[in-house]
Design brief:
Layout lengths: L2 H14 L1 H17 L3 H20 L2 H5 L8 H22 L6 H29 L4 H27 L19 E3 L14 H25 L13 H19 L1 H7 L3 E3 H26 L7 H16 L3 H8 L2 E3 H17 L3 H11 L1 H6 L4 H27 L1 E3 L7 H11 L9 H26 L2 H37 L1
Antiparallel strand pairs: 1-4, 2-3
């Protein structure tokens, strides 16, 4: 490969990631002037990452399906809060143990799912009537939905529907829900964050057994061959089952391993290095697959660049100051495992037939219709999936904070999630898991550092608050302007060709 080709590849990489590089520079500048220690910075950053990533991931599938930035994820957050109130009201009334703690959180998720699906279905139907204006429709619908939500919590609960759990209602009238509900009273404060690796492995082992048995039964009923290898082979399920089984045996026989698995949080240094090694192995696999298996022409330059970035990240964790900062970070295992699971699910889903249909519909609706794809149906499914994931994201946020802010917690989740996705390099028409992860890290790093850097440079921390709000709104406005401009240019080209 000649020098000119390498320069072109580097130029393309820089242009493609210009937003990320810009915010990375701003973040480094803010960290230098903030005076914040690495211990405090990494502790807050990883806490925010675990708390907010789910909500950003909820935006990906609608973007792929051509719905743009889903401002209606606020509807998913409302679904979660409605479900949370119903469960804690029942817990306060009956006092039953199953409504408290981890089981209570899972019951909230179970109840929030049908609510989010119904609301997502209605939003998808409405968006099908407003093709091309989904984002503005989502923003306006949020105001209407919030009015209904406020009416429900201020008047219906306690006014029309009697609530036996008086501690959740306003004291003077008993009508209307309290502004802040302490989830610690129901043992839900950081309930997911406190689940140990022991219980994750045990329940994961049994869940995988059930999954394999159901898959085999399905293939036998459909009279399909039980293949071990290949695209639909059972090996992809048997390998994790075997690993979980080995871990189970180790827990039963090796006392130090059992003691280790009873931890619910991992040391930040080890977790970061393990993540870097896992990503590095993934990049190496992509390179080998590109060269040896698929035998595609040319070198996988992009994969080599990403491998280099991962290697640099691993080396950074070896620096004493960074290692000391990460050493004080404790990463909740289950919360991060759920994030990894939903990332893998999204990547897997987009490779399925339905996921490919969504890609086609998002790329060109006319081509999708000509190919026999039910575009309206795929868009509705995308909205339902996004709303459900957003509901789960709001549940994770509430249990991590330990409180449910009844009337305000859902209002800005769409703004911050969309801003984080755009900071990660996504656009209105293109987004991936990589953009979501990068955006959450950069956006929330700026949220942490901006007020402190502003206080040290200008003597006014409030300027930093204004700056980060400006960033959140500016990146969204710029993305919408660029999207509208591209549509105008596309129309002019089509007219010129005609």
């Amino acid at each position: 490969m000649d020098n000119q080709t390498i320069k072109n590849n580097i130029r393309d990489f820089v242009f493609e990631n210009k937003v990320v590089l810009l915010f990375l520079t701003i973040t480094a500048f803010a960290f230098y002037f903030s005076g914040l220690t690495t211990v405090a910075f990494f502790s807050e950053l990883f806490t925010r990452f675990g708390r907010n990533t789910f909500m950003v991931l909820a935006l990906l599938i609608p973007v792929v399906a051509g719905l743009g930035l889903n401002f209606a994820i606020v509807i998913g957050a409302m679904s979660a809060q409605i479900a949370m109130f119903i469960i804690v009201a029942l817990a306060g009334w009956t006092g039953h143990d199953v409504l408290h703690g981890v089981s209570g959180v899972f019951l909230v998720a179970l109840l929030a799912t049908p609510i989010a699906i119904i609301l997502g279905f209605l939003m998808g139907k409405m968006f099908n009537k407003m093709k091309g204006s989904e984002m503005i429709a989502g923003m306006v619908t949020n105001f209407f939905a919030d009015g209904f939500y406020q009416f429900l919590f201020l008047f219906v609960f306690g006014g029309i529907i009697p609530i036996a759990a008086a501690q959740l209602m306003t004291s003077h009238t008993g009508v209307g829900v309290l502004n802040v509900i302490d989830l610690g009273n129901f043992e839900m404060r950081q309930a997911l964050d406190d689940v140990s690796m022991f219980h994750i492995l045990i329940y994961g082992f049994y869940a995988m057994i059930i999954l394999v048995v159901c898959l085999i039964a399905y293939k036998l009923i459909k009279k399909q061959p039980l293949k071990l290898f290949g695209k639909e082979g059972l090996i992809k399920f048997l390998i994790p089952l075997a690993l979980l089984g080995i871990s189970y045996l180790l827990m039963l026989t090796v006392e130090p391993y059992l003691a280790f698995t009873y931890q619910n949080r991992l040391n930040g240094v080890y977790a970061s290095r393990l993540a870097a090694i896992a990503l590095g192995l993934m990049m190496i696999y992509q390179i080998v697959r590109h060269v040896r298996i698929q035998k595609r022409p040319g070198k996988p330059i992009k994969q080599f660049v990403y491998l280099g970035i991962v290697a640099v990240g691993f080396l950074i964790t070896l620096l004493p100051e960074v290692a000391n900062g990460l050493d004080h970070v404790r990463i909740p295992v289950l919360t991060y495992a759920l994030i990894v699971a939903v990332c893998l699910f999204i990547n897997w889903f987009l490779q399925t037939r339905l996921g490919q249909n969504m890609r086609t519909a998002g790329h060109d609706r006319n081509v999708a219709i000509a190919a026999g794809i039910n575009v309206d149906r795929t868009r509705v499914i995308a909205m339902c999936m996004s709303t459900v994931i957003a509901a789960y994201g709001q549940i994770i946020i509430m249990q991590n904070l330990g409180v449910m802010v009844t009337y305000g917690a859902h209002l800005n989740v769409g703004l911050y999630a969309i801003a984080a996705l755009l900071v990660g390099g996504a656009t209105v028409a293109r987004a991936s898991v990589k953009h979501a992860i990068t955006g959450v890290l950069l956006f929330h790093a700026l949220f942490i550092l901006a007020p402190l850097a502003s206080a040290n440079l200008l003597g006014q921390a409030l300027f930093g608050e204004y700056f980060r709000m400006f960033v959140a709104n500016a990146v969204i406005a710029l993305a919408l302007i660029m999207h509208a401009w591209k549509r105008v240019v596309k129309r002019k080209k089509l007219k010129a060709q005609a």
